[in-house]
Amino acid sequence: MAEKADKTEQAADRPLLTRRRLLGTASAAGAAGLVAGGAAGAFGDRALRERPTALTTVGSAALPFHGSHQAGIADPAQAHGHLLAFDLAPGAGRKAAAALLRRWSATAAALTAGQVPDGDSTGIALDAGPSSLTVTFGFGRSFFDRTGLTARRPAALEPLPAFTQDALDPKRSDGDLWVQIGADDALVAFHALRLLQRQAQDTARLRWQMNGFNRTPGATDRPRTARNLMGQVDGTNNPKPTDSDFAAKVFVPGDHGGADGWMAGGSYAVVRRIRMLLDSWEQLSLARQERVIGRRKSDGAPLSGGTETTPVDLAKTLPDGSLAIAGDAHIRVAAPASNQGAAMLRRAFSYHDGFLDDGAPDAGLLFIAWQADPMKGFVPVQRKLDRGDGLSRFLRHEASGLFAVPGGCAEGEYVGQRLLEG
């Protein structure tokens, strides 16, 4: 009878799994493969091959919060994303900001490990594993004025120039503090969002929030480059972690000195909410759409020939003498060869916020560009796009921000500690 009672007791306990226990019961082989795939980097062929695809394995995947770089930069973009900006409350200065980053870092470290943070009784994601959750923190230009740290503001954090295609809403732009949340499960992502918002308390007030999505791992027959809401394969020519100059393009050098030496190992994020004029775009013929982009819609191969990963031949001509890749094609204008080598790592989410008064979808891209220096990455490329990109006729840039994202932290530390306590 005692043995039967023990079994009944154990059965009753089974549904009450904590996030830590769920992660612990995942198969060792499956979890190891998932962590390897998540840590391999973003967008390259190797990373895509190693990305988990079976839906039953998605919850077990975990990406470490601690490290030399913050997670959520060179990792594959997840299926669900939240972008938030906060402004420090009146009277909240450097000390209050440090306390907030300490709370946020501890919470993010617990959540990304599949644990329940101290004081969390929400139960929002109690049954889920970490689902590749990443939480990334950054500082806007105004943060340094509000905390008395103007002398330590990086030179690269200068305001972005105005572009002719901009129709920016200041209420949805900029901010003192920036947070990027990504996960392959919607509840896991919302759980992190809710806890961080609550923990801001009276220290910081939400300025804006944007929600995005990507294709769910396992939704395709094999891992593929993502598509945007225009139906185009998007991200083929991104810098790859296997490139010899990847770190130099994306991360601030580790030996970086001076007043902004605290940015060593960090990166700069340009955030743009870009609405796609889908009603106009979808009226174009397939051939015209492909000419605007410079790639085949079916498989992402460049119109100069080959497969998706074939290098673009910008000099190739057709039998009639015209360029295979049109002079205003997006991939020509954005190519590093057209911009003196300027490059950035694009890691985006799509969004759909309903419909406008005229019935057009309020949908597009939450564009996030990562680079070691935005004045050498995003700015020159966007200037070129602004002047001669055929795709710009179908886009509206409606919100913008630039944020300094410091390097990662070790266990027992918090993100931004070298700035706030240095």
TrEMBL record:
Q: What's its catalytic activity?
A: heme b + 2 H(+) = protoporphyrin IX + Fe(2+)
Q: Which PROSITE patterns match?
A: DYP_PEROXIDASE, TAT
EC number(s) from the headed UniProt entry = 1.11.1.-
Q: Keywords on this record?
A: Heme, Iron, Lyase, Metal-binding, Oxidoreductase, Peroxidase, Signal
Q: What is the cofactor note?
A: Binds 1 heme b (iron(II)-protoporphyrin IX) group non-covalently per subunit.
**Where in the numbering of this chain does the Dyp-type peroxidase N-terminal domain appear?**
70-214
Q: What is its main location?
A: other
InterPro entries linked:
Dimeric_a/b-barrel, Dyp_perox_C, Dyp_perox_N, Dyp_peroxidase, EfeB/EfeN, TAT_signal
Pinpoint the Dyp-type peroxidase C-terminal domain residues. Answer: 225-409
Q: Which cofactor does it need?
A: heme b
Query: What does this protein's UniProt record list under function?
Result: Involved in the recovery of exogenous heme iron. Extracts iron from heme while preserving the protoporphyrin ring intact.
Enumerate the NCBIfam families for this protein: Dyp_perox_fam (TIGR01413), tat_substr_1 (TIGR01412)
The record's comment on protein family reads: Belongs to the DyP-type peroxidase family.
Q: What is this protein called?
A: Deferrochelatase
**Source lineage:** Bacteria, Bacillati, Actinomycetota, Actinomycetes, Kitasatosporales
Q: Which gene encodes it?
A: efeB
